[in-house]
């Protein structure tokens, strides 16, 4: 029992050390690298790190880039819609939107019949920044897809969409409702 605990504890420390302060991905032999959750963790961590490094240079906080990119295609949506699409808590979206309002990246209008609900729109500066975010994400995507054929990409996307569907269905069974 102690041995299992120490392995779990070591794994948590290794992942934490990587995510907090390391430029190198430490792969330990006892961590099965073919496990889905581990592969997802590694892929997300690496791509997110690349995106954050670039968007920090643009003075964006984590979370703001995905909101900007979403608004680029869905200008005028509600904060609730942003939270659902960007997989963020409503309180997190409220905080990020407040900062984005202060920076002049977005504006809020109560366009809907229900004046209690606000629509969020990109400003000109916000639209320019959203385009820059899209360019950054395209470079990260291109890096990830390097050496992978169109057919392999299509297969991967089809399989990955099925994995997402399976996980959403599993979430429904576990919690009784879908969180998204």
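-> sequence recovered:
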């Amino acid at each position: 029992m102690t041995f299992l605990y120490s392995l779990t504890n070591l794994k948590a420390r290794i992942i934490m050390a990587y995510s907090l302060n390391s430029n190198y991905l430490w792969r330990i032999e006892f961590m099965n690298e073919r496990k889905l959750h581990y592969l997802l963790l590694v892929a997300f961590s690496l791509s997110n790190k690349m995106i954050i490094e670039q968007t920090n240079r643009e003075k964006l906080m984590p979370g703001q880039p995905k909101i900007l990119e979403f608004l680029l295609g869905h200008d005028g949506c509600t904060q609730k819609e942003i939270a659902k699409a960007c997989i963020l808590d409503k309180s997190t979206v409220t905080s990020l939107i407040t900062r984005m309002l202060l920076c002049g990246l977005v504006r809020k209008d109560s366009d809907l019949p229900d004046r209690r609900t606000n629509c969020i729109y990109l400003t000109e500066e916000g639209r320019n920044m959203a385009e820059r975010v899209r360019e950054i994400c395209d470079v990260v995507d291109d890096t990830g897809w390097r050496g992978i054929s169109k057919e392999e990409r299509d297969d991967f996307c089809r399989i990955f969409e099925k994995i997402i569907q399976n996980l959403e269905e599993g979430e429904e069974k576990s919690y009784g409702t879908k969180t998204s």
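Residues 11 and 29 are 11 Å apart (CA to CA).
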